From TrEMBL:
Keyword Protein transport attached: no
Keywords (A to Z) from UniProt: DNA recombination, DNA-binding
Domain Resolvase/invertase-type recombinase catalytic: 2-146
Alphabetical list of CDD domains matching this protein: SR_ResInv
Record-given protein name: Resolvase
GO terms of molecular function: DNA binding; DNA strand exchange activity
Pfam families in alphabetical order: Resolvase
InterPro entries: Resolv_N, Resolvase-like_N_sf, SSR_resolvase
SUPFAM superfamilies according to UniProt: Resolvase-like
Superkingdom of the source species: Bacteria
Length: 196
């Protein structure tokens, strides 16, 4: 089995990836696997633009290895539960397995693979629900303060100019540009007020 090792430390910490790598290499060799490549980074796990991480996914898509092996889930990603689970599901969709060194339950190579995937999917769903509830609560709090959300409406003064400009033969985009409103506003107005 070809293994991609991913090791990461945060730039805020004065650490190197070497401690992780020693153990990850030792396990890989003890299992008789081959190390395809070591992807190492000193960057926050909350960033989605990690260059080595992205390269690993590009290589995974091309099936250059069979397994991504990392120290722990928080070393793999700290972008939140939903995004982390999406990454793991993405690896699965490429036919690449994953394994955490310190979290024995987080292993898609073992007999509990289906259970792990199912559990991760459930956690992702719960996280999505929690996010939705937080957004709803935030909107209700803002509404309770009397703050109106959304784009401001188009004044009736501007809307009253639309039929005149339509009769001049201007297009919806031209009318929008002239009145400094979106052409979608013009289309919506025309749909409600057909001009004979």
């Amino acid at each position: 089995m070809k293994v991609a090792i991913y090791a990461r430390v945060s730039t805020k910490q004065h650490q190197t990836t070497e401690n992780q790598l020693l153990e990850l290499r030792r396990w890989t060799q003890a299992m008789g696997h081959t190390i395809y490549k070591e992807y190492q980074e000193q960057v926050s796990g909350g960033r989605s633009d990690r260059s080595e991480f992205k390269q690993m996914f590009t290589d995974a898509h091309q099936r250059k290895f069979d397994l991504v092996f990392f120290w722990s889930l928080d070393r793999f990603s700290r972008e939140g539960v939903s995004q982390t689970i999406l990454y793991l599901a993405q690896l699965e969709s490429y036919g690449v397995q994953f394994k955490s060194f310190t979290e024995q339950y987080l292993d898609s190579t073992g007999i509990f693979k289906e259970m792990i995937i199912s559990l991760l999917a459930t956690l992702a769903k719960q996280e999505k629900l929690r996010q939705s509830e937080r957004v709803k609560a935030g909107l209700e709090r803002v509404a309770a303060k009397g703050i109106k959300l959304g784009r401001p409406g188009v004044s009736s003064e501007l809307l009253n100019q639309i039929p005149l400009l339509v009769k001049e033969g201007l297009s919806d985009r031209a009318i929008g540009k002239k009145l400094e409103i979106s052409h979608q506003s013009v289309i919506r107005w025309k749909a409600k007020h057909p001009i004979s």
